[in-house]
Amino acid sequence: FSFSCDRLVIDDGKFVLVDSLSQGKSHLADSLDCIDYHNFVVHDINAVFSGSYSSERIDFKKIKLSFVVDEDKFSAEINGKVYADRNKLKASDFEIITDGSRIKFDFSAETKDDLFRLDKNSVENVYMSVLLRADSLSFGELTKFIPQVYFLSGSPSVDVEAEGTLKDLKVKGIKVKVYDSDIFVDGELKNILNFSDFLINAEVKNSKIKISDISKFVSLVKLPEFGLEYVEVEGRYVGHPLEFNSGLGLKFGNSLINLDGNFKVKGNFVYNLNFKISGLDPYEVLNREDLRGFLNFSGNLNGDGVKFETMKARANINLEESMINKILIPKSNFWFEVKNAEINGSFVSLSEGFKGLIDLNLKKFGEGEFLLSLSGSLSELDISQIRVDKPHFLRSHISGDFNLRFWAGEISRMELFAQLNPSIFGNYRISQLRLNAKYTVNERRKGLTVQSSMFDLNLEGDFDFNDFSKSLDQAIRTVAGVADEKLKFSEFEKPEFLGIKNPVYVEYKLKLKNLTPISVFSFGQLFQAIGNLNGSFLADSQGFYFYTDADLKQIRYTNYKAGKIDTFIADGFKGSIDLSYSELLRFKVRGELKEFVSSGFEVGSLNLNLNYDDPEFYAEISADGKGWNFEIVSLAQFSHEVNRFILKEFNGDVWGNKVLLTDEVEIFQTKSGVIINPSSFVFNEQRIYVAGFVDKRSQQLRMWGENLNLNKLSKSFTFYGSVDFSFFVYGTRDNPPINSSSPETFLINHQ
Fold first, then answer.
1. Do 396 and 379 meet the contact criterion of CB atoms below 8 Å apart?
2. Its domain of life (predicted)?
3. Helices (H), strands (E): how many in the chain?
4. What is the pLDDT confidence band of residue 745, given thresholds at 50, 70 and 90?
5. pTM above 0.70, yes or no
6. Of the chain's two ends, which shows fewer C-beta atoms within 10 Å, N or C?
C-alpha cells in the first residue's frame, strides 16, 4: 500500500471520544477544570499534509495541524517535517505552539536494522539525537493533562541536547530558566527500556536559584522572607530510581551546605545521609538582625522508614564552635534515636565555660497523645567565656538542674522543676534557688502558675497560643511603627490583626522578688526590682487593648555595652499604663518615680501624666532634685507632613534662679528639620528670647536678652552687675560659626 499527495487538507474537522464505562474525572481534575481522557471533543481541526507514504518509506515534507480541545480548554498548532525509511528516521523543524508554550525540536534516529520491524532488543541499539528548545513551557497548560502537577506554575524556558542509544543515552545538557533562576544538568541514562537495570548518572552544575522564585514555581511552598537573594547549587544523582546515591551543595554568602547520602525507595524507605554546614549566618536565612553570626556543624542521619510509629532512625550531630549575636556557642554533641514510636536523645557539651547535659525522651501513647520528658544539668557556666568580648565583670561559676514533663493531646499540661545551685556571678554570690511551674489547658481555657524565690506568676485566659503570639507581636510592631511614623515621618503599614482567628483574653499577676539571678543570663545586663505588676491583654481582628498597674521598689539596672557600663537606680515607681489600638493608637500613662540616679544625674521625684489620642498628645510633667524643680505642661499635634509641639507652661527653680514661661514655645518638625518660632521666657524677672531652625544641611539658632542680672548665677563665682547678650549659631553642621556679644562690663569674685 502506498500513496502520495501534493496537498491533503482537512478543514474544520471534529473528533469525539465517549467512554461509556468511564466514571468521570477525579475530584482533583474536576476542581482544576482538566481535560477528561475518557470523554472529550477535539474540534476546529485544520490540517495540511504534503508528502508520500509506502511500506518502504515515509516522507511528509509538510505537516501543518491546528485544533481546539473541549471549548478552548486547550488549543495548539503543530508544524514540521517527517522522513523515515528502513534505516533512518528524522523529524525536523518541528514546532508546537499553544497559548502559553512554544517548543521547537529536531529528532533523528539511525540503525542497521529495519526501523519498520523493530523489536525491544533492536530498539535499544537505535542511535538517536534530540535537540529541543522551549522558549516557554506552560505548567498551567500541563496541569490540564496531568492534574497531579497542579502545584507547579510559571513558564520556564528549556533547552535539551542528547544523543546515543536507549542503552546509553548521553545528555549533553539540559538548561532550564525559571523566572530569574538558572539550572544546568548533564549526564547519561542507561538501559532505559529495562527498568530493573535502568541507571541515571546526572550532575547539576553552575546553577543559581533565586529564593523568591521557589514559591512562585512551586505554589505549595510558602517561604518566609529571607535575607539572601540567590543560592548557588551543585549536585549529583547516581543509581537506579529506587536505589541511588545523591549529593547536593549550596552556597550563599560565606555559607556552605553539603549533603551526601544513599537511599533505597523500594519497600521501606532506607536512607543514610551525611551533612556538613559551615559559616551559616542565620541572619541571611531568617532576615533577623539579632541572629547575626555563624554556625558550623556536621552529622549523620540514617534509618528505615519515615512514619513515626514504625520508623527506625538514628542521628548524630557535632556542633563546632559557633557564634550568634556575639554569643559564643561551645563545641557540643547531640544524638537521638527513634524506635518503637519513641525518641531518646542526649545533648552534651564539655567546653571551657559551658559544661552541660540534657536527656530527651518523647513517647506516643495514643492517637495524638504525646509525652515529652527533658532532664538536664549545668555546671561550670562562665558567661564571660561565651561572650565575644569576654568582659571581666561577667566572670561566673554557675550550676543547676531541671526536669520538664509536657503532655500533648486533648488535655495538655506541663510540669517544670528547676534548681540553681549556689553559684558565683562576678561579685554576686547566688544562694540556692528553686522554681516550680505548672501549665494546664482544657479546650481554650489556659492557666500558668509559677512559684519561685525570684518571682511568682499567675496567668489565666481564654486564648489560642498561635493567636496570642500573633497579637502580641502585632501590638509591639504597632506601637513601634506608629512612633516611627509620627516622629520620623516613615511609612507605616497598618498591622494585620485580621490574621487573629479567635479573640485573645489574658489576665496576669506578677510578683517580683529577686530578679538578679535571671538577669545573670542576659549577657551584659543586671536588673532588679521588687513589687507587683497586674494587668490584662485583649486582642481580636480589630486591634488590641493592654493595661498594667505597677508598684515597684528597689529598681536597679546595669548595662554593659561596647566597653561601657551604664547604670540607673530608683527607689520606686508607682503607676499604670493603658494602651489600645483600633485603627488609631491611644494610651494613658500615670506614674511617679522616686529617687532616680543615673550617671551622676539625680532626681528626687518625677511625676508623669501622659495622654495620647491620635493625632494629639498631652503631657504634664513635674520633677525635683537637689537645688532644682520644675513643672511642665505640653501639647503636640502630629500629621504626615508637619508635627507641632507646644510648651504651654513651664515653672521652675534652678539653684535659686526662677524660670517662668510667659509665651508659648512653639516648635515645628518637618521632614527636613526643626523650626523654633520666636518666643521668650523669664529668668529671674529678666526676659530671654530664643528662635531659629535646624535642618539636614544647615542651622541658625539665636538666644538673646537684655539687662540680665548676674548676681544669682553661680555659688562658686559671685557675679556683679547686669548684661545685654546675644548668642548666635549659624552655618553647616561641619562648620558652625558662633557669634556672641555682651557690651556691658561686670565683675567676678571667686569664692
1. no
2. Bacteria
3. 7, 48
4. very low
5. no
6. N
